[in-house]
Hints:
- By secondary structure, the chain is mainly α.
- Among the domains are: 38-284 and 478-490, Serine Threonine Protein Phosphatase 5, Tetratricopeptide repeat (Alpha Horseshoe); 289-375, no CATH class.
- Helices cover 44% and strands 5% of the residues.
- The strands form four sheets. Strands 1-5 form a two-stranded antiparallel ribbon. Strands 2-3 form a two-stranded antiparallel sheet. A two-stranded antiparallel ribbon has the order 4-8.
- The termini are far apart.
- Belongs to the SusD family.
- Residues 21-217 form the SusD-like N-terminal domain.
Amino acid sequence: MKIKIILPFLVLFIFSGCESYLDQVNPNKITTETFFQTESDFTQALAATYTPLRNPNGGYYNVRSIEIRNYRGDDVVVRNDTEDQYQTYLFINSPNNDFVARLFEECYSAIYRANLLLEEIESSELSADFVNEVTGEALFLRGINYFILAKEFKDVPLRLTASQANEDFPLAKSSQAEVFAQVESDLTKASELLPVEALNQGRATKGAALAYLGKLYIYMENWDKAISTLEPLTKSPYNYSLVDDYAKNFDLETEYNSESIFEVTYEKVGAATGRWGEENSNTMMTNPINRIFACGDLGGWDICNCSPKMLDIFTSELDKDGDYDIRARAGLAWNYPGCIYYLQPFTEGVSSSNQSKIYVRKYTYANYFEKEIVPESELNVRAYRYANVLLFLAEAELNTNDKTKAIEYLNQIRDRANLSLLENSSTTDEVMADIIKQRAIEFFCEGERFYDLRRWGLLETEISNSSEERAANFQSKYSYFPIPSKEIQTNPLCTQAEGW
């Protein structure tokens, strides 16, 4: 059985204000004034602050947001199954897109909860150690949610108080640089307060805060700060390392392994109905990612497949034994000699009409379950892996003209994949080309590709090489999502994103 932080729903914490009637306290009505009393109260509220990351209909690490994060790159092809996700794939989405609006709302829901926690814990009389514990995690969660918003929408309102007063809601957007500055502040403070070892599996740590902070610096192209922030994660007191078997990053038995820096937790609890409903006390803590990727002949939904272009990247270099890259074999299933998919030969389980497709193995149970597709997945989503630290360090070192160190980090990734190591005689351009390639392969369908291409200035070129229809639709404005219409309608000071 998995040991995880349980993330309950708190009606008070999420929805109630601080209203009072005739200054009398109703003992049957919980308010912020009566709730935040004990360590247990704060622990429950803190748990609820993690919940928006994995809420079914908009959580950044649940299926709908995983879809729209991955579908905008050049590494997948998508079936016309659900209009909102297909619009993002084709670059015809609008400010009315429900999937995007839900993502926006979940981020601000988490931010509101974090703000409320920070305000209440500061005025509490609880122990200093506990105050630091709650403050560190709340800052971490606020920081990564603002990082998500700035990464997806660019300029967004910066809300730093938990007010629910109508007069406080109108708020102009802050620039992406201003939001990034807040993220930097939050994650820096969080890293100073959080423990090296998680208090419970699934909770934030010092290493997780530094990892996201280093990623922020990569996006800001502040290479020196990226190095000074990420390099400590490669040594004591941290024990991060690449797992020997790449596939162990995507199964049940090896969750919270040495490569995992931050995971979003899932477990088979909650109602089996209302998959796309609102958050409540019995909301499912599972997700259907496995069915999105899996073959229809085996019970999946067959919505998202690897693109032929991406397969070419996967298979462009054989390993030292003459086999396909282990990341291709562990991450994909396609019609090649010896391919086993759901514990049977690919050509036996997949109908002839589907055998030209390239299926995604990650998060699908394909490597160790019988033929039947599990209806709901309890596989944790590995939000941040140590492999990302190594490749970010390689990129940062290369950009500070230390090619030797860049190759050292890059070769750790290549070595795990049983590829020949790069020589120090490799040119800077060759090293950068391999960083681009290794990131494409290593993080296929993990929500990195689109953003990597955008920050490298390669997005339009690579989209133009993906499909004629998508290339014809793509404009620079699609580099970011528009501000959802609901925000524009209810927040008179918020203006729409450029180009929209």
